[in-house]
Amino acid sequence: MAGRDSRADILDDDPFRNQKPRVHRVHARQSDDGTIHFDTGSSTRINPLFAQMMGSAQQQPAKMHNGSIWHFSSEEKKHLRLATSAFTVALGFMAVGGLWGIDSLGFTSWVIQFFLSMPVLLLAVGPAFLLHEIGHKIIAKKNGCWAEFRANPSGLRFGIFLSFFLGFLFMAPGAVMVAGLVTRRQNGHIALAGPLVNFGLFLIGIPLWGIILGLTGAFDVNTSSAFYLVGGQLIWQKMLIDVGIYWIGANLILGLFNMLPFGPLDGLKVKDWSENAFYATISVFALLTLSWVFLELWSPLGVLQSIAGLF
Question: pTM for the full model?
Answer without folding.
Answer: 0.79
